[in-house]
Amino acid sequence: MLNIPQELTDKIIDCLHDDKPSLYLVCWAWVPATRFHIFADITLRRSWSRMMHPQYRPFVDMLATDSCTFAPFVVSLTLEDLDQTLEAELEISPLFTTLAKLKTVKALTFRRLGSLGEQPLYSFLPRLPSLTEISLQSVKLASADQLFTILEMCPSLTSLKLVSVSWELSTASAVYARRTSIRKLSIIGCPPHEFFYAFAPAHSSSRLTCTSLAIQSIVSADVENIVGLLNCTSETLVHLLLGFDGWDDDVEGLFFVHMDLANHKRLVSLRICDIQANDEPKLERLLTMIHNALRAPLLEVLELVLMCSTRSVMEEIPWGRIDNLISSLHPDSLRHVAFSFRGLYISDDTRAATVVDIMRQLRKCSASDFEVVITL
Prior knowledge:
This is F-box domain-containing protein. Helix content is 35%, strand content 20%.
């Protein structure tokens, strides 16, 4: 181990603190124990065009030694850019055995993986007793069954995030046994039908315990399954985020015909994204959406993200009717209402005047006890 003065060590660490790849390559062998907290969040990447060693090897070699003392300080681990080549498989498979020494890891992320096999994970996931959060982002799986096999290896899991996870169309063969332990669930751009078959099967009497739920890219074909999931969480759900597919003209109206938030007695915050607001039928759906949202008896925060391409489209929004609806039907708990816009360009010269004009039309809401925010 190099004998480097403490002052120089601290100076180098401070200079490299925001340059984690360089920090890992320089500091593993001699970073003092008083600075181990900087390794709480670790990201290991295997570039598609480079061998593993420049990114992984210093970390893995140090972790594998008996004298390694920083392992208990690692609480978040991210593995990125693992491809499907035989070369990569031969390098990566033994890696998981070494990573199993990180027994204090609470959050694990797999990001941009060409293929995620189960076998190497059997020597890894079951040996992480503190693991409570898993995030799969841009990961390719063989089937929905493979996803739930991976999740079953994590008995303490309470948080699950799936972003652009894909698999061959296949229905999961069994219900996910530990689904009632998940408190936080986020699904973005995944095949939901196969997932919900195992996570929230239709006609199931079991109640889920999710307190936070985020589902985006919703299409009409998924509405029944998603409404079923929401019904299973009506007794525990506190935070809800919904996002609709902009190419599906019917999904918003269909969703709120089936969904009644009056049954969600603990729902505090609701954020709805990608709401189409470019013609009269869709604006009527917006009013229905707001009416339904206000039925949640303890709602405190309501945020709506509207899709508008031009200022003229935005001016067609019936702000007066929205003002009457919210001011007359809002629960006493409401303290914050926000409208923001995507796909809309407004020059700086007209931005402030536009906000003032909208607020003028929302005069009843502006005079109420809750805050109203317009973001352009």
